[in-house]
Every structure is written in structure tokens, then in C-alpha cells.
Amino acid sequence: MTDTLIKVDLNRPPTDNERVHNRWHPDIPMACWVQPGDDFILETYDWTGGFIKNNDSADDVRDIDLTTVHYLSGPVGVKGAQPGDLLVVDLLDIGAKPDSLWGFNGFFSKNNGGGFLTDHFPSAQKSIWDFKGMFTSSRHIPGVNFPGLIHPGLIGCLPDRPMLEMWNERERALIATDPDRVPGLANPPSAGTAHMGQMRGEARDKAAAEGARTVPPREHGGNCDIKDLSRGAKVFFPVYVDGAGLSVGDLHFSQGDGEITFCGAIEMAGWVHMKVGLIKGGMAKYGIKNPIFKPSPITPRYDDYLIFEG
Predict the structure, then answer these.
(1) Cα 262 from Cα 117, distance rounded (Å)
(2) 3-state DSSP helix/strand/coil percent for the chain, to nearest 5?
């Protein structure tokens, strides 16, 4: 039996779980340790930590504090991993938690961050999707039933301090070019809602004030939103800190090529079965500065389809 190294209780807030975090910072302690070659399972919250409920109201989508997201399981330390190595992650299997066989997607309100379609759809909307094996259907969109391609929307390793400082500097500069834009061009650190795993006291407060938000993808991976990172995918992550610090979350039952509504995937709580390996000195050996993704060999076939012309 494969060990489940991180478990989540969906009846408790994610901030009670010390093996979960919602910021990137090099000082976040490892939640657990594994050896190269180990395989293991991590359970995850949905990206909002359970704020979005299985009901017919979109008020929760309208009212969510987006500085709280995403909640990630980890970091997982890999023994022997050092800066300059490549961490090889095989995604062996992914699924929904048995006590949470549903997901959600929708439009964010223009008054709360919005998305790229808020000029057309300014109000919050939500649809709930029920999972039955590999298929999903929604009471809010009758007559639709299709197979998903479950994948983590967010996966990456901890940055080192120079990388964190570079991120914060360039994102502050980007925000300054249009500080009143909705949605914002970037998301600066927000200490008040930072959950830093096991960190406590002054060290926690300092890291929370510096910690990078999880919204964009960066050089370490992060919010990749690549639908083909499903069962059988392989990822090569640059290592920036001792132990690598692998974290994962934001699982999607299904997603297109991008999330233009900012909640465009079918978001879910679930679990990821993965295996890790190391390529020592791999960054220099292969000239890699950003993650490299080898997509899943599994692709749903949508031969039976309808086209609605608008």
C-alpha cells in the first residue's frame, strides 16, 4: 500500500492544517520527507480551501477573499536534492476524494477580481458538477455529460531567496504600470491571509509579509493550468533550495486550454499519487531554467459532440 503522507479533513479549515500553505517562501518548513525513488499520495483541498459550497448560490464566488488562495499540500522534501538539481515528478494517478465527489466552476464578479470576460459577464456565476467515475454532469447545465482529464492546476518547488526577491520586485513594477486595473496585473504579498505551514511567531510574520502569491506560474512551476498534466505525465522541476520543497494543489476534474473566467476549470478536492526522482546537476547539464512537462499519454476522445454557433 502506498503511504498517504499528507491528509486533509474537508470538515476543518485549511489554516488548521500545518502541512498546507498558500504562499511561496524559501523558509516554509518541509511538511514531510521522502527518498528519491519513493512514491506517495498527497491529499489536497480545492484551491479555495472549501470556501465554495455545493449549492445553487453564486454568492460565495462573489464574496471570496482571493488573497487566501491557493491552498497547497506540502512542501515535500526530497532527501539529497540540492540547488541546481532537477526534480523528476511522475504523476502516477489522480482522483477526487471519496467524500467529495463534486466540483465547481464559474465566473468571478467584476467587483471581486473578475476575469477576462467580465465586460460580457460582470456578475458572479457558479455551476456544480457531480462526478461518476470518469464522467461528470451538472444540474446547472442539463443534458451535458463528458469525461474529464483530472490534473493538478498548481505544482512546483520552493524558490530560493534571490528568486523570491526577483519575483516581488518585477511584480511590483508591473502593478505600478496600471495600479487600478481590474483584475490586477499581479498580486503582491498579503500577510494577513498568509498560511505558512508550520511557521510561527516572528519568523512566520516576516515570511508572510514577503511570501509570493500562488496565482501566476513562474520559473519554479506554480499555477501552470496545463490540462495534459494528468495520469502518466512527467515533470522536470529546477531545484532552488535544499530538499526541493515540492507542493501541489488546485486539482481540476477538467479544464480547457486556459481559464479565461479565472475559475474556468472544474475545481475539486482530491489526491495525487506521485513518484519523485533526482537528476544531480541537471539544470546545468541540460540548460534548464524553467520546468519541462511531458504530457499524459491519456486524452479523452470527444467524437460525439455538438457545436453551438454564436
Answers:
(1) 9
(2) 15, 35, 50
